[in-house]
## 1
Amino acid sequence: VTDVELTRGSAQDIPRLEPLWVAVHHQHRAAMPELGPYVSDEVTWREHRPIYEELFRRPDTFVFLASEGDRLIGYALGHVVPVEETWIADTWATGRRIGELESISVLPEHRGQGIGSRLMDEVHAEFDRLGIEDVVIGLLPGNERALRLYERHGYVPNWLYVSRFRSEGRG
Ligand SMILES: CC(C)(COP(=O)(O)OP(=O)(O)OC[C@H]1O[C@@H](n2cnc3c(N)ncnc32)[C@H](O)[C@@H]1OP(=O)(O)O)[C@@H](O)C(=O)NCCC(=O)NCCS
């Protein structure tokens, strides 16, 4: 655990995030198989990568990387958005800008060692530096492990989508 190093990354690191994002996708599939069919590993990255690229064209997007030697084993990516561009402004009284923890992932064999928690601490320190006091995270309701991590760091359940997809349950 002690030789796991956290550093700040940049948009240049986006290609290296592929296996870590695919691990998030695997977690989604495993946590709620009843919502299938899911897209393939190839499609999930093809669709998600441009989201990261777009976020890094905006100010105040950041990524922290967890590495063991040369090997990338985890990351957390956050960004900031004006509250009026969100679903929050019409319902809750918050600051003018909202932080979102867009993604957090630790490779399966490195979970349960506190790395996710250390990444969360870095993310909160960065939001503090940016003057952000209001933060949201999206997750699947069946992703209990992620929910426990967030609750330990002070988050409570907030907005919830329900879905009725044409293909749901045919996975
Ligand atoms: C969610 C996720 C990022 C958590 O990362 P992690 O590194 O395992 O997180 P932590 O190690 O800090 O905490 C996980 C557990 O280990 C325990 N733990 C923390 N430090 C520990 C240590 N030093 N030794 C033993 N256990 C420890 C925690 O108490 C926690 O227990 P819990 O699951 O019963 O609540 C990781 O499970 C993951 O990548 N999941 C798949 C992707 C995903 O779902 N991402 C979120 C999408 S919304």
Note: Residues 1, 23-24, 27, 104-106, 111-117, 139, 143, 145-146, 148-149 surround coenzyme A (CB under 6 Å).
## 2
Amino acid sequence: MKRIILHVDVNNAFLSWTALLLLKEGYKEDIRKLDAIIGGDEDKRRGVVLAKSTSAKKKGVVTGETLYNARKKCPNLQTFSPNYHFYQEMSNKLFTYLSSFTPDIEQFSIDECFLDYTHIKHLYGDELKFAYKIKDEIKEKLGFTVNVGIGNNKLCAKMASDFEKPDRVHTLYEEEIKTKMWLLAIEDLYGVGRKTAPKLRKIGINTIGDLANFDLSKISSIFKKQGLEMWRFSNGKDDSPVIPNETDNKCISNSTTLAKNILNRNEAYPVIMALAENVGLSLRQQKKYAYVIAIQIRDKYFHNYSHQKKLDNPTNLTSDIYNVAIKLFNDTWDEEPIRLIGLRLDKLTAVNPYQISLFEEVEEKEMDTSLQETIDILKNKYGSKIIRNAVTKESAIKKKYQK
Ligand SMILES: [Mg+2]
């Protein structure tokens, strides 16, 4: 049975999401229609173009160039900073919407995902009609456009969504590979990077079809494992499954029915602290961050009420959870004797808010943290000597060969 895979890709995600945010905040113009870019901080070295509007693109502005260069090409250029928090919010909305059809969704990046349609076709019918339906509903409900690619595997679905943009549906079924994909430039093949493409052109491979029909043993001897992969892709071959991300719609909660009713704030605070520690620890064990913190109160008349706050940036820190919970408690409590207090963390995300930022410093810091974690695990398991031994050996080997 042939698989049916859909690839949903937000058109110009950062720019169109920023456009939506600006409109929401009362900005008069839709920056999608102007010479506009999303760019990093001008003063620092990360002052580069992250995304550009169609008209800026027409004037020659390219992603990755400096803001300075972009302005030379386009004097009226308007520059806006990225807002990753809002991007994550829009991303979540998109995946929540798509998850209403099937759990077989793999988030591929903040603005892209694969959806396995094979086993839900009997529910929703023809995949092409379904693709148009979701494309139009996303535009109508969420305010931005997407491309949807359909294929018999992930590679073909992804290649298809990249055909003409924006706001389009394309197919690249097995039988269409020769007619629709082989004529494309080799640079257009997924997985062929900026460094590899010139090497391929040097040996006479200019189109995807050229690669598909090239002698595999030659390609493999030049490009090794990557060569086989590229060659398989050029022939539209890809067996990788759609791997659903963990569902993050579960919440973490904990509550305490009190031995005796709480009558004043000072009695409530330590209870809230204990709950914050408890849910915070669960959250960190799951390696997640929470956007929503909620407090629940039940009074002695078994009357329940709750109050929640959505954070601008998700957190996994007990101190943050405690501080928000205390504020919620103080805003909510009507001073009736309390029987039960509960804390709930909701809208959990596995995406560390700092991971999606472009700040290298943070990435470096995270690398240090994960290295430290690995070392801790190894030390716990094998004793502290193992690390020292490995490090010593490695430097000894290096010394030997550096001479
Ligand atoms: Mg995209």
Note: The longest strand covers residues 304-315.
